[in-house]
Amino acid sequence: MTRGLLRSGLLAALIALLAACSSAPVTDAPGIRQQIIETALGQLGRPYRYGGRDPSGFDCSGLVQYAYSEAGVIAPRDTKSQRDAGRRIDFDRAQPGDLLFYRFERSGGLHVGLYLGDGRMIHAPASGKTVSLVAVEAPVWKKRYLETIRLLR
Length: 153
What we know:
By secondary structure, the chain is of the alpha+beta class. It has one domain (26-150): Alpha-Beta Complex (endopeptidase fold (from Nostoc punctiforme)). Helix content is 34%, strand content 22%. The protein has a 6-stranded antiparallel β-sheet with strand order 3-8-4-5-6-7. It has a two-stranded antiparallel sheet with strand order 1-2. A hairpin with an 8-residue loop joins strand 6 (120-123) and strand 7 (132-135). The protein is globular and about 40 Å long. The protein starts with a helix and ends with a strand.
């Protein structure tokens, strides 16, 4: 085998290995969930901004990605990828930092929030609003709930 082919083969194998690792759940080391929640809570009142992923403004998936990244965990950027990256769990097993997904008929899109525990969620709701806390048992959320996803294992 020529040196160039060997190098290309090794590079392809390395890329495949790294790609497989990037979508795998990250181990739930002590304190990571707490860091995620503290970071998210620190964003309360920040403005909603479509495509936003930093404290100047967040959309729903940007808030999730930012809170995870500040805890050293790489999370996908968009809601569909965040939903696909983890594993589905029953809501009654949800822990702080797990993701709650909702579907709104009007837009047809997915919405994601971070579960805080005690029946509360933090999320970046919509244009003209700010990052806020809501009760997941409120009718508006209950009827649109899709599933709970755990990115951490």
